[in-house]
Design brief:
Blueprint: H1 3-19, E1 21-23, H2 24-31, H3 35-47, E2 51-54, E3 57-60, H4 69-73, H5 77-88, E4 96-99, H6 103-111, E5 119-122, H7 125-130, E6 138-140, E7 146-147, E8 152-153, H8 156-163, E9 167-172, E10 176-177, E11 182-185, H9 188-199, E12 201-207, E13 219-223, E14 229-232, E15 251-253
Length: 259
């Protein structure tokens, strides 16, 4: 299978996972390919029991529905642990910080469990629980409906929530990074929340692993060059190297050297 086809099919699965049920036409428009190409991809994904057709649309096959958040958080565990540890080194005791949704920001929260006196403003219930054992911490959560199984809160009320606070650090992840450096998400609400976190924090920390480069998602926001710190496990493909030309010490590579 070609790299282009593999990335397109990964994008199809990501979109279907986020939206639940998607039409062939919508997939073709989002990925800027023909409906014939999408149908061929869907045929093979259905044969592999990954997708299921339903009334002219496609959805995840039953065994892939409602994947527990903990299972997704376990993907690339060593890389995420190292990224979390590298980010935590930048955040001292007594800091105020935003933490966004996602499994990589959760890894940062786990790495911060030794800190004291944090003020944590987050819509990521998993991150809040990780930091709740330290009684000197203050944890602030938005109201709204808890999204399951992810255990996070999204929506317009959450955007307004992050507008009411200011913090020293803003920690957030991303669904994908385009070739021009645009940061991508599956929902526009996620872009708005990330933008508010960056605007209202003194220092922005983008945490992601190298698999996010070239991964498609339809909602575009800021550019990776606008971040105060970008914390990666290791460098992505050479095609993305120009994005880091002027980043210098703002780029942190977290992967540990092996003997």
């Amino acid at each position: 299978m070609s790299e282009r086809k593999r990335k397109r099919r990964d994008s199809i699965l990501g979109i279907v996972q986020e939206r639940g049920v998607v039409s062939v036409g919508a997939l073709a428009e989002l990925l800027d390919v023909s409906t014939q190409t999408i149908r061929r991809d869907i045929d093979e994904l259905c044969e592999c029991d990954t997708l299921h057709r339903k009334h002219g649309r496609v959805e995840l096959a039953e065994q892939h529905l409602n994947t527990p958040f903990d299972q997704r958080a376990a993907t690339n565990p060593v890389s995420k642990r190292d990224i979390g540890a590298a980010a935590a080194e930048l955040i001292p005791d007594g800091s105020s910080l935003f933490i966004s949704i996602g499994s990589t920001p959760l890894s940062v929260a786990r790495a911060l469990r030794g800190r004291k006196g944090l003020t944590v403003i987050t819509n990521n219930l998993n991150a809040a629980m990780e930091l709740s054992d330290e009684l000197s911490n203050r944890i602030i959560l938005p109201g709204g409906e808890l999204r399951l199984p992810d255990r996070d809160i999204l929506g317009d009320e959450v955007v307004q929530f992050f507008d009411r606070y200011r913090a020293e650090y803003g920690v957030f992840g991303v669904a994908g990074v385009a070739g021009d450096g645009s940061l991508l998400e599956f929902h526009s609400a996620e872009v708005k929340v990330r933008e508010r976190i960056r605007e209202n924090s003194q220092v922005s920390l983008l945490v992601l692993d190298q698999t996010k480069f070239g991964r498609f998602a339809p909602a575009a926001g800021e550019n990776i060059r606008d971040m105060d710190h970008v914390i990666l496990d290791r460098m992505p493909d050479a095609a993305f190297a120009p994005l880091f030309d002027d980043m210098n010490d703002r780029l942190v590579l977290a992967e540990r050297e092996t003997a």
